[in-house]
Design brief:
Layout lengths: L10 H40 L5 H35 L7
Helix pairs in contact: 1-2
Length: about 100
Amino acid sequence: MVGRLRAGMTEQALIGFGKEVVVLTLLVASPVLLTGLLVGLVVSILQSVTQIQEMTLTFIPKIVAVMLAFIFFLPWIVSQMVNFTQRILGDFSQFLD
């Protein structure tokens, strides 16, 4: 695959592009995932303190919190994705011969 790269696309550029994609994916997903993690932790602590061991009790607060976090962070997520797409399309000439 590396031997078939076009003249303008070096191995370092391809690795840099892949790294940028992974970092952006983690950055965009982190607010929603961290919200679910924190709500799950709080609910688990409350369950252990009150000794209520209902399995469905953990799902509803997490689902609601993740949904609210997604709605709250959606403008930021979209702006990050649009900026990345504009940057990639602006540098599209480097992918061509």
